[in-house]
Amino acid sequence: MHYTWGKALSYTGGDTGHGSYGDTRGGIEDFGNVKIERSLSTGDVAHSVVLDWVYQAPTPFANSVLARNALGGWQISGIWRSSTGVPIPITQTGGRPDILDIHNAVNQNCCSYGNLQYLNPAAFQAVEISRASNRTIRRGQAGPAPLRGPGSSNMDLSLGKQFSLGESRNLEFKADLLNALNHTQYTDISTNLANIEFGQAIATKPARVIQLQLRLAF
């Protein structure tokens, strides 16, 4: 079992590269008070738990040659991971909005089929935009990354066995199930208040993948 607690703080996401290379947190809203831009870094994960195991299944009817070869020697292994979500920025046209109700900003019952509204739109309010600059007339109350996205939980399983073909030859069979429980894991959230789908989960990690492997070792 592995548990990790971490916290990374930085300005504008903390990516050392240019924004076009992947840091989507944007820039400084108020250059007169840069210190208040310090927040959770892009990709920060507060809690992460990983469990991994290997189980050698017992051989039924061990006195039988057929049973030992067909039913014996199977190995079952797996990895289960669970972690909190990464920081998400809240934006609007020309800057950042105000947060009216931080405690109810996240829908705790999200997310599932037919219930993809992760952020509560009523908890946010757009700041007026200047016609001259197309920017907000003042800095919105929302920080660079005031909230976290959905957490994730996933389990991968593997089943394998070696079949002896005599002398130093073995036939190795392995079956891997990635996301074995086919659990839907929501990732991206629409975070621009101007979008009609604001606050909804709009992307997921891959569904279950099964891969089979047969290998002759000699």
Alpha-beta content class: mainly beta
* Largest sheet geometry: 6 strands, antiparallel
What is the residue-mean pLDDT, rounded to a whole number? 88
User: Helix share of residues?
Assistant: under 10%
Low-confidence stretches: none
User: How is the largest sheet built, in terms of strand order?
Assistant: 1-4-5-10-11-12
The fraction of residues assigned to DSSP E strands is 25-35%
Topology order in helix (H) and strand (E) letters: EEEEHEEEEEEEE
Number of helices: 1
Strands, count: 12
- Total domain count: 1
The best one-word shape is elongated
C-alpha Rg, in Å?
25 Å
Terminal residue distance: 35 Å
Which structural traits does this protein have?
6-stranded antiparallel beta sheet; mainly beta; 218 residues; two-stranded antiparallel sheet; elongated
Give a written overview of the molecule.
The structure is a single chain. The protein is mainly β and 218 residues long. The chain has one domain. The chain is 3% helix and 31% strand. The chain has a 6-stranded antiparallel β-sheet with strand order 1-4-5-10-11-12, with no helix packed on it. Strands 2-3 form a two-stranded antiparallel ribbon. A hairpin with a 5-residue loop joins strand 10 and strand 11. The mean pLDDT is 88.
Task: Compile the SSE list and pairings.
Blueprint: E1 2-5, E2 9-11, E3 38-40, E4 47-56, H1 65-71, E5 75-83, E6 87-88, E7 98-99, E8 124-125, E9 147-148, E10 152-164, E11 170-178, E12 209-217
Antiparallel strand pairs: 1-4, 2-3, 4-5, 5-10, 6-9, 7-8, 10-11, 11-12
